[in-house]
Structure formats: C-alpha cells, structure tokens
Amino acid sequence: METGKPVIVLLINSGPLSINYIAENVPAILEGFYLGQETGVGVADVVFGDYNPAGKLTISFPRSVGQLPLYYNRKPTARRGYLFANKEPLFPFGFGLSYTTFAYSNLKVNPAKLVSGDKVKVSVTVTNTGKRAGDEIVQLYVRDLVSSVTQPIMKLRKFKRISLAPGRSRTVEFELSVYKDLTFLDENMKLVAEPGWFDIMVGTSSVKYETAKLELAK
Question: What does each C-alpha distance from 179 to 183, 184, 210 come to in angstroms?
C-alpha cells in the first residue's frame, strides 16, 4: 500500500467481519475461517502460487450492520440497509476468486416445458479464460416466480467442482427433480410443486450467473 510493498490480508474468523476498509485498500484477501493445524502450510501454498485456490463463500459479507441479517436466499421484500447506501453485500454468497478466470455460456434446460415426468436436465459450458489451470465450483440456483406462499429470490439446489486447463471448456450437467428441487411447503404445510415459471440460474456465485426459463405445466 503506502509503503510500496504488496500487502495480503489473511482472515481467521468464525463469521463475516466488517472489512470495508480492507476491501477498498488491500489488493488481496484470503478468507481462512478456521483452517486448523495446517494453516501455515496451506496459506503459504496459496500466497506463493503453488496452489490455485477455488473456495467459495458459504456466507454473505455485509457492508454495514444495517444489512443484518443478510442472506442470499432472502424474501423479495427483505432488502435491508441504510437509506442512500448500497444494499448489495460486500462479498456475496458463493463468491470466490482464483488465479484464473472462468466464463459461462450456452445454458440449456431440457425440457424447457415439463408436461410429465420428474426430471429436468440442465447444462452449461464453462471455459477457463485465464492462463493457469484451476478449479471452479459451478452453482445452480432456482427461483419460483409465482407461488401461493412467498418464496426466496433464489435457492441453491446443485453445485459441482470441476478442473480445467487454460483455454479448455467443459459442459457441466445437472439433473433437477421436481419433487426435490421445485417444491415448497404450502399454507397447509404440505409439500407441493405448483405449475408455473421458474428461473434456472447457473454461475460462479449468487450474483453472477446465466439464466434460463423452465415451465412446469399443469
């Protein structure tokens, strides 16, 4: 920073911290949570480039206390924050960087309209667009657009970890089950899958993804 020397911040913590200043002024942040007795070895491997990290956040980091509690799967009206302040999380659920980058394309849902049966196949092409081999955790979220009971804006339903060499692509496939992945408890506390439209979102985090439509017919 001001000394002209590269600075890395390593966080050892049990939950999200207030790190606005760090995020604005430090070029690299390593989230360790509680790494255990091999902390030093693991951190050294990442810092010196011997290991390409691929972890993703399992919590959201807020910008301010006014956002708490902060969840990626919030209800549509639960958008907390201070007036005139950015209400987006500082670091969202599912976020995580590595020494390479990935691009998503060609998201497909088959069938796009489910008339009968229980299975839906979802596929997406993931490409390593960087110069190093690395792992990516592909995340699939679902949103029920109209329902008799208020639903979260998104729900994590599937994820897969893949390895890709630089410049290589891979088609990642998921299978959704109507009675496992598209259901919710109605006002009578019965598990139901209501006909209607769903957003199928596949990407690198809960805020960066490709979207396709799925219709569940009557």
Answer: 6, 9, 24
d(CA 19, CA 181): 35
Q: Write out pLDDT tens, residues 134-145.
A: 999 999 999 999
Residue 1 confidence (pLDDT) above 60: no
8 Å CB contact between 136 and 54: yes
User: Domains, the chain, ranges and CATH?
Assistant: 102-216 (2.60.40.10)
Neighbour tally for 119: CB within 10 Å? 11
Tokens of 155: 């729900």
Quick one: DSSP state of residue 7? -
Tell me which H or E stretch contains 29: strand 28-31
CA gap 97, 29 in Å, rounded: 10
pTM, 2 dp: 0.93
Q: Which residue is it, tokens 């000394």?
A: 3
**HSE-up of residue 130 (Cα within 13 Å, Cβ side):** 15
Burial of 128 (0-12, 13-18, 19+ CB in 10 A): buried
The gap from C-alpha 113 to its chain's centroid, in whole angstroms, comes to 25
